[in-house]
Design goal:
Radius of gyration: 22 Å
CATH class of the largest domain: Mainly Alpha
Number of helices: 23
CATH architecture of the largest domain: Orthogonal Bundle
Amino acid sequence: MTTGIATGTPVSFSGSFTAVGKSPLTGTWGDSRGGGFWGKELKNAGFDAVFFYGKSEKPVYLWINDGEAEIKDASGIWGENVNATEALLKEKHGDKRVQVATIGISGEKLSLISAIMTDEGRAAGRQGLAAVMATKKLKAVAVRGTGKIPVFDKDKLREQVKLSLAAARKNPAFLGFSKYGTTMMTHMSALGGDSPVKNWGGSGVADFPTAEKLSGDNVGKYNIRPYGCSGCPVACGGLQKVESGPYAVEGHRPEYETLAAFGSMCLNDNIESIIYLNYICNNYGLDTISAGCTIAFAIECYENGIITKDNTDGIALKWGDHEAIVEMTEKLAKREGFGDILADGVRVAAKKIGKGSEKYAMHVCGQELPMHDPRLETQAYGKRCQLMYIADATPARHTQSPHEGFTFQAAGLCSFGAFLGRGGEGLPQTHDFINALTEWDVTSAEMLLIGDRIAAMRQAFNLREGFKPSDFTYPDRVLGKPPLKSGPLAGVTIHPEIMVAEYFKSMDWDLETGKPSKAKLVELGLEDLIKDLY
């Protein structure tokens, strides 16, 4: 569990930490970014990262307190969900300022789509890394730190932050994210071809015409107050409350990905049910993208007669039936009944169900695809996703990108900061902040080289594990085979292999084997990998 150079510093958008391990969901390199305040607290406690080796015979948690680290018995909290675990550890250590990264019951039960949670609703969500913690019997990492993070040039950093923040506040996206968070794009994305609809097989215009019910304004009716991670001037998160009814709950506002996964993917326009589903996933510790996509897969299997009520514990899984969606998600979270079949995502579920269900399992190398359609080639983001879903070392990830994108993440910065107050004329760039924080003198070109090095290391990990580029493939439906007949993506079939070939050539990686060339590894200072790869 790692932080970055900027994590916890005065640099805006610096609330990140990254959980890293071999993904039990895909078998590839696995990393997953989390927000909140845990990363800052770890830095304040005097540590940049924590590495765990081996496994415990009994449940434990790690207690870090101002430079001291101690493994403690967790038998009293094993079996508790996320919110209770956080509360119990804060109470035990007598300080509400203790920050906790923990797994919930879904992680304990080794769900391959389980997430590491902080702040009762911030998730290092993708790639099932909570299950890695669970196999080690590691329930949580609780941290308290009162130290100061050293800054090399405070005056220079202060001026940089001032310039960056002033520019960010003038960006219309800043105001949009402050008011709506990522929910501002949900219904427009569903109708415009960005959000996948009906398990990637439908069109928002034809199949989900009520998408506007999931608009930012409608979701915002349940707001209590905004929520921002450490160092965030935008506060794109929010706390919400459903006052009454079957979905009465208080928790974090669902993000765009959650609204699309449990909304357009399942043809569910009931906001209160999605707020409740978000709470279930946060409290049990589940990746909302994978959970929603797995429910959509199950619905399509049911609608096509592959599974029946005899399989689904009597639940009629129908498109748009929010009650059935909630009931089955709770079973998935607990690994109860048919939920046990679904708890490891669509690839494992399809193998268990059989009967041709594989064609409804939308994944790349085992990981459910995010909520941005690569068929939307009219938008640059759609084209980038078309490439990165199958070219990155972590398959089916919409937040990954090579070069400076990797260095941005590794610096401990949220991706929103990449376009809010960064990089314009006269404005500080990421390497400027790093140079002010440290006594380094990193250039923009060196940042790109560092990004190349990170990409090559992640790629080498996958090669060591036996993967090759041809293992990363799209389902035919996502390629547009056959193409949709209506909506913004009507008639579209994509050919990502062209972009992948161009990308590998630009990286100096072999397209067949995936290996970076020997010359490239020397250029990156990774000569030790030559022996491993060649």
